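Task 17 of the worksheet. Students: predict the tertiary structure of the chain below and write it out as structure tokens. Keep your answer in the requested format; marks are given for formatting as well as content.
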Amino acid sequence: MKSELKKLASKSLIPRASPGKSKNRKQPKMNPVNLENQVRTLAHRLEKTKQKKNESLSNNCQLKAKIDVLRNDKVMFDQIYENLKISLT
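Model answer:
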């Protein structure tokens, strides 16, 4: 979890001051073009993340459906097995 947070923090587009050195360092001036580019980049990243999430949810739903089918098959085969066991004894 911590490594993921560090990874995300390193990808951040917003400049950060080093701790303890912020007194002597002036904040960079953000012109509208840079801000617009940052907003566009972050919006694109958000869309890609949402797309990945939706793909994962879709995949999970498909896997759950397969699991339900397999559970039903197991119940059916268990019943067949029990019937055969009774009829053979």
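Marker's comment: The radius of gyration is 28 Å. The mean pLDDT is 84.
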